[in-house]
Predict the 3D structure of the following.
Amino acid sequence: MGRITNRDWRAGDPLPNESVLAEEFGCARATVNRAMRDIASAGFIVRRRKGGSHVALTPVRKAVLSIPVTRMEIEKSGATWRHHLLHCRLENLPAGLCEKLKVPSRTKMLHVKSVHFADERPFVFEDRWINPAVVPQVNDTDFESESANEWLVRNAPYSHGDYLLSASIPDREECTLLAVDANTAILVAVRTTWLEERPITTVRLAYAPGHIIQLQL
Amino acid sequence: MGRITNRDWRAGDPLPNESVLAEEFGCARATVNRAMRDIASAGFIVRRRKGGSHVALTPVRKAVLSIPVTRMEIEKSGATWRHHLLHCRLENLPAGLCEKLKVPSRTKMLHVKSVHFADERPFVFEDRWINPAVVPQVNDTDFESESANEWLVRNAPYSHGDYLLSASIPDREECTLLAVDANTAILVAVRTTWLEERPITTVRLAYAPGHIIQLQL
DNA sequence: AAGTGGTCTAGACCACACC
DNA sequence: GTGTGGTCTAGACCACTTC
């Protein structure tokens, strides 16, 4: 890493192979392998069997977002968390979401809407669909006491998912629930998680104006 | 992982130690160690010396954003990339940024402003400051041909940085450059990178309306 | 065909944090 | 004190991919 940041080895340059570096640094090849694997996973070098390792041409810069439970995110800032459940009912999933979640049209899922407050100010509006076919325990759960967000984190491990961020003008419902007017910009996150090929939940999070999402490089 | 997603082992449960698992799976302890280290880095288990490994109580869900070079991001969507350099001059860094970058007030940095176009439609407005004390080669570089974004990725490795995302209403300059009116919401990313304790560059990216940033869980 | 990284083994020592 | 994970070693075999 030092030689890359010092520019002794520049973009595209080949690196010595593992055995050579092991000898140079006076350690075992496995130790070099682990170091290089870590450096590669951080995007600084590219490794190919037989082809050898090279300093990444266009380092794929990766930023990591740690997604907190909303309650903890609010409490960490020193504010008091409160959550208000607006809606919780088994309903037909809208057609657009059926397609996105790859389930047959008119599949029924649990529709949960709630608002999280920080010190009694609206923080985020959560509009969520939960698939009871994958997490049947959801039918016996009361989302008044524990938010759906938190319950799912604790009870529904996922295998993969995606997370989309965009900016938007709030619609009428969001204006009311977040107590803002329609001339502000809000950050919207849409998160969908899967257990293998089956969708667990999809949620749209509309954050109050001024919210910032921070990632680490 | 199977036992966690199957809920054989639930949130908070202790896992057998490495030696026991190695025996159970008929492999070496180092193999178990590597697997568990990977699983821990994905946030599913928590490991403590002497304390043992446990299924994470509140799995820290991590989303990863691969930050592309703007040109490649545009070209990957099939559009033609073009970039227009608006401004490129050594200037005093504004006071607010001096503080954020932890440099003395009235430090001079290279101020570069440009707009990237996708098929001749404005895509993002890039407002950047580059620290010539860390990357002196920047003085001999022509950002007309290669964008500052791309040049930095290729020539200025960083040790760490941060990346802030928020939603905003465009100011007058942004309205003009992105060809939008002031009633839309735009996504704004502010990215700062460092080489150890020294700031390399800070950039504010104002994306045209409708832009979506995608992360992988 | 040959060289590279990918992976695994069996063993060892150590730092740390819990008892 | 003691058990845990963290790390390293020296050696081995293998899969992949480029030459």
Notes: The mean pLDDT of chain A is 89. Chain A touches chain B through 55 residues (CB under 8 Å). The beta strands of chain A are 45-48, 52-55, 61-67, 81-92, 108-118, 121-130, 160-168, 186-195, 198-207, 212-216.
